[in-house]
Amino acid sequence: MAQRRDDRYAFDGLPLNPVEPGTNLLVTGPVLNGARELGLRLLCSADADGGTVLISTDSGATAILEDFEGCGGVLDRERVRVVDCAQEGGDLPEDSVSAVSTPADLTGIGIEYSGHYESTYASGYTRVRTGIITLTPLLVYSDDVRTVYRFLNTITGRIGSADGLGVCVLDPNAHEEQVVESVAQFFDGRVDVRADAGDLELRVKGLRDQSAEWTPVGART
Amino acid sequence: MSDSPTVLCAQPDTDERAETADALTDAGLAVEEVGSVDSLEVALDRSIDCVVTAFDFEDGDGFDVVDAVREVYPDCVVILYTEHAPSDLPRGSPEQVVEYVPQTVPESRERLADIAAMAAAEVTQAAYPVPDTETERLAAVREYDVEQLEAADTFDRLTALMTSHFDIDVAFVGLMDEHEERFLACEGANWRTLSREDSICTHTILSTETMVVEDTHEDPRFAEVDELDRLDIRSYAGVRITDKDGNAIGAVCCTNGEPRRYTRAELDDLRRFADEVEEQLRLRRRLQRGT
């Protein structure tokens, strides 16, 4: 594992400068055409003490772990854990995976997430990257958006105060603009993603020392 | 009087509770202890910044604690500290989102204390977005003690003028406190306060743009807010007011019982009304301070 040069979270192979501990990022763009992939790449950690907790709402644990590995993530059950909110029955593949019956159960998701966070931390992986992949089902399944606000305050609050990194993927075209704008308030910065003739590009809003212009995202090496 | 954040620690077992309280105290927190849900409800008459609770009580469970806390302190962080694994807990309702620290991790009390200290100082479990500069914003709101500024008559006249100018049901000037909006002047209704999670102004203070909701039933942020229907707020336009440092302290707003659109000219006029309120507040504060 790499020896890191400072406490900031780095993103190997991506045109993003490292961000401060405690940063929460909202990744917006077409989920199946770049945003999900970029979100997973942001969650890959090269740090020896780096862990990842994935809240998977759009696919089961097995599928998202495969996708995470395909994006460069290292599958180690001690340091990569999943809250599976899209499980379609069957046994859970690992102790490092837990299931919540529906994306509407925000209380259950929050408790499972905190449990995984603590287990990851207790295993010595204290620099935890958290991914919500994606936020759309949580918004769609919640009758009242205020419950999602409370959930986001709780999750981003823990990430911020524990010097973690948060990455939340959202397809803005799936929601009313007002909802997207209000959700963006919970995050320190926003990474917009688009696919131009098949090539991914990103731009960053709200964070210093980042490119606000569309910048090509190199293919994973 | 301690300046330390106050944590309410609810655990039924006296010895366990004492150990938890010691860990929380060592983390620099002021600790109040209770052993039941009933006694917790009584203790909530004091100011608290965070609640740490077990799950099993003789007179209820951890979700009863969440409900009791949220009734009094809707934004307060509640941390469930229990030996139950998440899968062993009953399913809570979505509004019962909590923090959770399992007693089964090594040195769990120390870990709990770290999380409680961070939560009490920095985190909210509010059901609405909070400005990044909330601490500075609240300090700015406290600077504008309107009773001392003697601005109420002025704002009464302005809001009366607004209702006739825009031909609307209600016009108001509101200050956004920590947990609720406080109406300084309200023409057309007798509103005193409104909780932040129910108030449209909660969103207005986040943006420099004028906030317009033509139909609350068609806006997903507000369609499920029953309190707006109870107050007969079907449409809304509002402009935030700030102090000289840019901290949003409140808003100047129009509401109507029917869906309504606002023309560009009307929104320009609304902004002028808000500028007038802002200027009155700043001027009166300067006069009060003699600067």
TrEMBL record, chain A:
Native organism is: Haloarcula mannanilytica
- Which superkingdom heads the taxonomic lineage of this protein's source? Archaea
Q: Under which name does UniProt file this protein?
A: Recombinase RecA
UniProtKB/TrEMBL annotation, chain B:
Which terms in the Gene Ontology molecular function aspect does this entry carry?
kinase activity
SMART domains, alphabetized = GAF
Source domain of life is Archaea
Please state every residue range assigned to the domain named Response regulatory. 6-118
One of the GO biological process terms:
phosphorelay signal transduction system
* PROSITE patterns xrefs: RESPONSE_REGULATORY (PS50110)
Sorted alphabetically, the keyword list is: Kinase, Transferase
| Protein name, per record | Response regulatory domain-containing protein
